[in-house]
Request: fold
Amino acid sequence: MATSENNDVIQLRGRSLLKEVDLTKQEFLSIVDLAERLRTEKRSGTERQRLLGRNIALIFEKASTRTRAAFEVAAHDQGAHVTYMGPEGSHIGHKESMKDTARVLGRMFDGIEYRGSSQESVEILSRFSGVPVWNGLTDQWHPTQMLADILTMRDHAGKPLDRVGFCYLGDARNNTANSLLVTGALLGMDVRIAAPEDLWPTEDVQTMAKELALVSGARIHIGKDVIGGVEGADFLYTDVWVSMGEPSLDWDMRIDQLLPYQVNAATMKATGNAGAKFMHCLPALHNTDTELGRQIFDKWSLSALEVTEEVFESPASVVFDQAENRLHTIKAAMVASLGD
Ligand code: CP
Ligand code: NVA
Reply:
């Protein structure tokens, strides 16, 4: 961004968003600040288009509702055009390497979003396309989700981020958990993880977080205990127990392991914080209104998994604010990298 209104994000022009640890705390927060301004503009009908005539490629090797919708609507709002490339219908991965794809798309597009399994793919796209690349989720990281989550926490916490505490419960070695851990560490927050030891973040992710915490002053606690983890937290956060791309056989084991980490009314109460909020990146398995929800009910007689319907639908739940903030923050990420 090179405009006087956004001097604070000027250093992100031309940059990719591949994982949170590539950004400084100031850079990360400058995108969140920009998202807040863009949200105000959109809501007041005064949005100025900063991406006029830009072409954005959207590569989705995995399913998406929010991320795809956010990139498409954000681009449209800002005057850019998108080309969607889904799991079928292109040569990507089948008979053309990511390196070759990157060099082709870089000749045609001004920016590329990528969602798929491999972090290496998104890194290769960035290295060889020569244009900004935004990671729309890999097995390892989910950085655009983090921008929305931090904006949502800021909206609801009513205090500075370095005084905000959140606890992530569930599968803590998936993309969302990894990203929450390092983002909270980057921003100096009180970060807790409550999960079975088998599902803790890998040593290298824990080390990254601890190193960031030394600089930011973040408090990090990773443990098995639910009560100790959630006590005093401002936000409880969970995600699906089996992520996209994992074998469906994993459900048996995960349900056994993770049922004690379900976010329910008792977990919310155990925070001891009447103002504690519930967060989830979505989609969530909180009732039997989905095909998967019904299959799980038929097999295990459980009508909800990682969060109960009661908590999901309660006033404490800010999940749809999070979802809306995907739009404003993804727009900010594109504007920061490419805006005029
Ligand atoms: N939270 C999130 O990334 O949602 P989608 O999978 O719908 O994009
Ligand atoms: N951990 C989840 C996040 C979905 C947005 C998955 O990868 O399926």
About this structure: The radius of gyration is 20 Å.
